[in-house]
Structure formats: structure tokens, C-alpha cells
Amino acid sequence: MTCFRDAGHLFSDADKPIFHCKDCGLCRVGQGLGIDYKHCHKCRSCINSSIFDDHVCLENGLDSDCPICAEHMFTSVKPVCILKCGHYMHLECLDEYTTREFRCPICKKSLGDMSSRWRQIDEYMEENPMPTEYAGKEAKVLCYDCGQYSTVPYHFMYHRCGSGTCGSYNTTQV
After folding, report:
1. Half-sphere exposure in the Cβ direction for 137 (13 Å, CA)
2. Residue among 42, 109, 97, 39 nearest 66 (CA)
3. Where are the beta strands (DSSP E) in the chain?
4. pLDDT digits 0-9 by tens, 87-117
5. Where do the domains of the chain lie, and which CATH numbers do they carry?
6. Partners of 8 in the β-ladder
7. Which of 125, 140, 159, 165 has the CA that lies 20 to 30 A from 119?
């Protein structure tokens, strides 16, 4: 897509609607600011109105490289998505990445609702208790989802976050 801004008129060689954001200084695909997009001055990017009120705001978040392909995202013509944690990446990179990973490649928070997977792990843990010589052992873990440290029962495979109501298995031993 090529976009030219001339005397308040936008021209494009694509059949998609485009708008110019004066704050970004760029043309973007969409109906426009106040219609389907809002500009976030902290993120310095245009955010879809449907997620604007709930997005995690990271200062200059879009002014970074995609953590997968390393292309700069602020000026990229590829579709970019904002993750639940506030980090950005190309949509096609996210699609390929999530075939093998469930965590943000930057902060390691879960990319979505993992409750069904956590229930599967709960069942696995019940069916595979620790051998007697390891019963009663504990491990200190950091939960990537809630950011809390806790001491939990040790297991060879998984450690459930022990802080409050988190319950995530997205943990690491510390």
C-alpha cells in the first residue's frame, strides 16, 4: 500500500480504507480516529477502539522490533497486534509462534486464557504423585503471570503458582 497525504486528501493503491494519524505521522489502515481507532499518547500508537480501554499501556510500545522477525513495527506494513501483556508483534509472526509456545516472547506472561490447560495439568499431577522419598519437598517458584514468588510442593514436571487465586503453571523455579 502506498499512501500520500496532500491537502487533507488520502490516496491509496489498495482497496482498504486508510486514515492519517497526525500524532503517529503515518497513514494507517482503518476507518479513522474516533471511528474504529483511538491514538494512545503513552504507547504512541493507534489502538483499535474495541480494545483501547482495556489495553496494557507500554510507553512507546509499538516503536520496537517484532520479537520474532526483528522488523521495526511502527512503520511496518504488516498487520501488528497488541498482546494481553501490552507487547506488540506481527500477526503472522504470532500465528506461527503460537503453534509451539503459549507465552509472550518478551515477558513470558501467558498469551491467553490457559485455564483449560491448567486443569489438564491438575489432572496429570493427581495421576502422577511424587515418589515417597520426594513427598513433602518444596520448591520456590516465580509465576510469570502474576509476578509473585511462592513456595509450593515440589514436582518433577510442574509447579502451580501458590499466590492467591492465580493458579497458573506458568512458573519457573528460583
Report:
1. 12
2. 97
3. 3-6, 9-12, 18-21, 26-29, 37-40, 45-48, 80-82, 88-90, 138-143, 149-153, 171-173
4. 999 999 999 999 999 999 999 999 999 999 9
5. 1-55 (no CATH), 65-112 (3.30.40.10), 115-173 (2.20.28.10)
6. none
7. 140
Alpha helices, DSSP H, located in 1-135: 49-52, 91-97, 115-127
Cell 520426594 sits at which residue? Answer: 134
Grid cell listed for 126: 493427581
For 38-74, b where at least 16 C-beta lie within 10 A, e where not — what string? bbbeebbbbbeeeebeebeebeebbeeebbeeeeebb
The residue with cell 500524532 is: 23
State the Cα–Cα distance between residues 101 and 19, nearest whole angstrom: 34
Q: For 108-156, how does the pLDDT look when each residue is reduced to its tens digit (9 = 90+)?
A: 999 999 999 999 999 999 999 999 999 889 999 999 999 999 999 999 9
Q: What's the DSSP call for residue 166?
A: -
